[in-house]
Amino acid sequence: MSPLASAARALADHPWLDGAWAGSTGALLLLSRQGQAEFHREGRQSLLDALQSQLATRDLAVPGNWRLLDAPPPATDHATIEQLLATPRPRQITPIAEQKNAGRWKLDLVLPSDLILFDDHFRTAPVLPGVVQVAWALALAAPRLGTSNHCREMEALKFQRLLRPGDLLQLDLHYEDEPDTTLGKLHFAYRLAGQHCSSGRLRVTLAHG
């Protein structure tokens, strides 16, 4: 067994983890509910520091590359683990499901635990910045509603609940024309378990306008 494989095997029983898998360059970690709570409370680096310290005290190899998963890997063979370790940490988000009804879109989103934007905002209590929520609403609306990726003004912005790693969100989007102007309003709202998290109106043009 390789040194990193021994380290992953030792970590697999940690109460913060539901699984750990090692490759040649690092380790994949699947956080347990307790581990997610620690991540939310103290941040990524503090969580990893504690795991690294545990390995060091047992004279086990410490991986140089850590990746946090939101689900078990699709396979645990060497090639799959290496591919996951080599994949860049995400900066954007991709809907896992979407539905259109009468010009309104509902998108289901999962905030990846490994999202690089969580590293600095805030380092010890990761939350999704409000500016990112606005940027994602613009980016996700553009191909669906034909709106611009840039807004001219922002109205009625409300950020009422923190968005954290692993959250399963619903994003509602719709566009409202305004008479006698080339601008319209892109309405967005993020919800978590049916509870309002954030919303706003963004004055935008249509992409062809």
Structural class: alpha+beta
Shape: elongated
Cα gyration radius (Å): 20 Å
> Order of strands side by side in the largest beta sheet?
4-5-7-8-9-6
First-residue to last-residue Cα separation: 61 Å
Note the main sheet. Answer: 6 strands, antiparallel
Summed up, the helix count is 5
Give the mean pLDDT.
92
Helicity range? 25-40%
Q: Give the low-confidence spans.
A: none
Strand content: 25-35%
Secondary-structure element order, as H and E?
A: HEEHHEHEEHEEEE
The count of β-strands is 9
Description of the molecule:
Strand 7 and strand 8 form a beta hairpin. The longest helix is centred in the middle third of the chain and has 16 residues, at 130-145. This protein is an alpha+beta fold and 209 residues long. The strands form two sheets. It has a six-stranded antiparallel sheet with strand order 4-5-7-8-9-6, with helices on one face. The chain is built from five helices and nine strands. It has helices at residues 3-11, 33-42, 44-57, 78-86, 130-145; strands at residues 17-22, 27-31, 66-69, 97-101, 104-110, 153-159, 168-177, 183-192, 195-205.
Summarize the SSE layout with pairings.
Elements: H1 3-11, E1 17-22, E2 27-31, H2 33-42, H3 44-57, E3 66-69, H4 78-86, E4 97-101, E5 104-110, H5 130-145, E6 153-159, E7 168-177, E8 183-192, E9 195-205
Parallel strand pairs: 2-3
Antiparallel strand pairs: 1-2, 4-5, 5-7, 6-9, 7-8, 8-9
